[in-house]
Design goal:
Elements: H1 2-13, E1 22-23, E2 29-30, E3 37-41, E4 44-49, E5 54-59, E6 66-70, H2 73-76, E7 90-91, H3 92-95, H4 111-123, H5 130-139, H6 144-150, H7 168-174, H8 180-183, E8 192-198, H9 211-222, E9 228-230, E10 237-241, E11 281-282, H10 283-300, E12 302-304, E13 307-313, H11 326-332, H12 347-357, H13 359-364, E14 370-377, E15 385-393, H14 394-407, E16 410-416, E17 422-427, H15 431-439, H16 445-460, H17 467-477, H18 485-503, H19 516-535, H20 544-547, H21 549-554, H22 556-574, H23 579-590, H24 605-629
Parallel strand pairs: 4-8
Antiparallel strand pairs: 1-2, 3-6, 4-5, 7-8, 9-10, 10-11, 12-13, 13-14, 14-15, 16-17
Helix pairs in contact: 1-10, 4-5, 12-14, 15-16, 15-17, 15-18, 17-18, 18-24, 19-22, 19-23, 19-24
């Protein structure tokens, strides 16, 4: 129950955000829902006057269709032929008193009678508002469809009944396709209607954005809740509920986190007679916890193939995302102008710089702030599961983040800054990029989300990176001819970071390192740079060192003989310009002992030696070119 309590506390800490509209990067609106409220996509908006008369109506554009509406326990979980009206805004079959008159199909009873009785109770209660009364007065006249047809919102067939669909017959009757058929998927009967109130004297707040309307229904509905029960989350006696929220990940999501409605199966039979004997949760806690979760998912979660990766703090402050790379984490701090400026190649120095970049965030949070990490996914359409959950102090979370970004590190050159220019950064790659490095850029979302879930404990619990991920990335990085140059360079640096998590090497060339695999990697890098300089910038084909890289990693002695033989024409072509590199080959090869110069496959350390040696040679070349220009 701890994750429910954390979500409940998050809601209580952010009450000022309730009903406040926020926007995602795609301009989609979301908000922290009030309790006893949910969201629906509306198709028609009806404006009534303060006296309860029809004013106007319009078809709602899809971009502004999301509507915050009051709901009851029954209506929020209605399905099939069950009659359970929403208290105010609802489908045409519920809100139109003349629905049957215009050919509306009903199965047993008229839904409108249930709807208007519920609305009447609210309108005549002590919690009613003038807007509720205006809408109730209008709908009591039972002429909604008549007014919508007169306003050219709904359309009738030749017999005066609602058109089922827009077809050639309807086109011959009316000509141009009406707007309503562009926003609904089924017949006009399925249209969802929202109501608003018009005043000639002042501009009124929209009903679905009105805080007074929220409070009115919450107080009214709280009086009708069931008996009190012991809440396992808060430890208090409060009105309980067995119907918990869905639509957690999106408006179409039917999966629930808490459900026990299988009384004929084996969910709890044999141990308990009723579901609330297992655990009971109060209505207030259930509503607030689920609404907080929906808000957090919209606000800052990563969703991959319907799997939710969420990190949040209870006080509502934004949290550095542990799935992102060091570049994005540096950019999280607004005081850092550009993460590409970070050039430190010493892990200890980088850890200090990284911690300094997060210092502002440390100060923003209170000392008691907790960080919550949650992963959710569903195996079926009706059930949502918690795959991973951790609750840790913010200091510990930030320390683990610093440790990850200063141990799983290497130099990367595949990111771009705000101006679109390619930059280099030092640190850990993102989890998504690790997945692409290990399984290729066409890896499915199912594979990516599986890897990300396995990587979370590596950051938070400081576990070792799974060997199969490292091996897969190592195999791809050792096979450069199978991918384009940019993709291989990205895969290479990410693989080096994964390997370096264990080895703790530096990007700067270690001239004192006599490890066999590291030295073989250096030899391969020197051969690659020598041939590349001989070919010149106009030649783009791969060098022999790159072409034979995969074979070299498996049989270094045998493949090195082939590579060295192929280098001879290029050494002759370079002449004195290649003497330094030729001498360097001899110097590095001489440091490999006789017994180690064999065909035993190379470990991932050879990639670290390859990258560092090549980086060192390219750095020297750049400095030499600058001197020549001067």
């Amino acid at each position: 129950m701890s994750w429910l309590l954390d979500l409940y506390e998050t809601y209580e800490e952010n009450l000022e955000q309730v009903g406040k509209i926020e926007k995602k990067t795609n301009d989609q609106e979301f908000t922290l829902l009030p309790i006893s409220h949910t969201t629906q996509n509306a198709h028609i908006e009806v404006l009534v006057t303060e006296n309860g008369d029809f004013h106007s109506a319009q078809v709602i554009d899809k971009s502004s269709a999301s509507t915050l509406i009051p709901c009851t326990e029954d209506s929020s979980s209605r399905a099939g032929s069950k009659i359970a009206p929403y208290p105010l805004h609802d489908k045409l079959s519920y809100v139109a008193g003349d629905f049957v008159k215009y050919g509306g199909k009903i199965k047993k009873e008229e839904p409108f009678s249930y709807y208007i009785k519920q609305l009447e109770d609210w309108a005549k209660s002590s919690y009613s508002t003038p807007k509720v009364n205006s809408i109730y007065k209008y709908l009591s006249k039972r002429q909604l469809i008549q007014d919508l047809v007169a306003s050219n919102i709904l359309w009738l067939d030749e017999e005066g009944q609602l058109l089922d669909k827009w077809d050639k017959k309807a086109e011959a009757l009316y000509g141009e396709k009406p707007q309503i058929f562009s926003v609904i998927n089924g017949s006009q009967e399925s249209a969802f209607v929202r109501f608003d109130v018009y005043s000639p004297n002042e501009i009124l707040t929209n009903v679905w954005k009105d805080q007074d309307m929220y409070e009115s229904f919450i107080h009214y509905y709280n009086d009708s809740l069931g008996e009190e029960d012991f809440c396992y989350v808060t430890g208090e006696r409060l009105p309980g509920t067995e119907r918990h929220a869905n639509k957690i990940r999106n408006a179409a999501d039917k999966a629930k986190l808490i459900s026990a409605n299988d009384t004929s199966g084996f969910t709890f039979r044999g141990r308990f007679n009723k579901s609330n004997e297992v655990a009971s949760i109060s209505y207030d806690v259930s509503q607030k916890a689920h609404n907080a979760l929906k808000w957090l998912i919209n606000r800052q979660a990563k969703i991959i193939d319907q799997r939710v990766f969420l990190v949040w703090s209870i006080d509502g402050h934004k949290v550095p995302d542990l799935t992102e790379d060091a570049y994005d984490t540096f950019m999280f701090n607004e005081n850092v102008s550009d993460a590409g400026e970070t050039q430190s190649f010493t892990n200890q120095e980088f850890a200090f710089e990284f911690a300094k970049a997060l210092a502002g965030y440390r100060n923003n949070l209170s000392t008691k702030s907790k960080i919550n990490i949650l992963i959710l996914d569903s195996a079926t359409t009706g059930r949502l599961a918690v795959l991973y959950y951790r609750n840790i102090q913010k200091e510990l979370y930030l320390d683990r983040l610093v440790n990850w970004h200063s141990t799983c590190v290497w130099l990367h050159r595949y990111r771009k800054n705000r101006e679109g220019e390619r930059v280099q950064f030092y640190g850990a790659p993102s989890m998504k990029d690790i997945a692409f490095a290990a399984y290729g850029p066409n890896a499915s979302d199912k594979i990516v989300k599986g890897l990300m879930e396995r990587m979370f404990p590596c950051v938070i619990d400081q576990r070792k990176i799974p060997l199969d991920i490292i091996r897969s990335a190592l195999y791809r990085a050792s096979n450069p001819v199978s991918m384009e140059r940019w993709e291989w360079e990205k895969t290479l640096s990410i693989t080096c970071a994964l390997i370096n998590k264990k080895e703790e090497y530096k990007v700067a060339l270690d001239l004192e390192n006599n490890d066999r695999d590291y030295l073989f990697g250096r030899l391969l890098a020197i051969a690659d740079v020598l041939e590349r300089r001989a070919l010149g910038p106009e030649e783009s084909r791969s060098t022999n060192a790159i072409r034979y890289m995969n074979a070299f990693s498996k049989h270094p002695e045998r493949t090195w003989i082939t590579i060295q033989d192929s280098l001879q024409p290029y050494q002759v072509k370079l002449g004195k310009k290649g003497s330094f590199l030729s001498g360097l080959i001899d110097e590095v090869a001489s440091r490999i002992s006789f017994e180690n110069f064999n065909n035993r496959p190379l470990s991932g350390k050879y990639l670290l030696g390859f990258y560092s040696q090549r980086h060192e040679l390219y750095q020297k070349k750049e400095k030499t070119d600058v001197k020549d220009e001067l």
